[in-house]
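Please, is this right?
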Amino acid sequence: MTAGDGPSAEQAWLVAANVVRWRRYGEGGQELRPGTKSYRGGSKVHVIGTYPGAAHEQLTTIGRGRHTGTYITIDMATHNLHNFRAVPVHSPTVLRLCEEAAAGGCRTGRQEAEALAVLLGRLSVEYRTTR
């Protein structure tokens, strides 16, 4: 392990993603709606947990809510996210919410976060094209 790769008290490596700007809605996906019910389109969220047994279709995320602007922790569908990447997180609020959620993804190293980002990026494209 090299310096900067391991977790510390002030930093954690998490997977960040952006909420899709427009999502399909309604019967047959004929209608487009901006963002999701909880997040604005384009909002940055941090993935703090996945459900591997359910093929990563749902993720636990932390981000700023659409209506209040305060940080929220919710489960959401993988197909509503894109642009997955590994990022070092220094925000005390995000780190605190991550620890409180006890989702298990809060103290990962850089390599684990990068591997998960690649996997989730591939799966999100696949889930969007099959819906």
Summary: Strands lie at 12-19, 22-25, 31-34, 44-50, 58-64, 71-77, 81-89. The longest strand covers residues 81-89. DSSP finds two helices and seven strands in the chain.
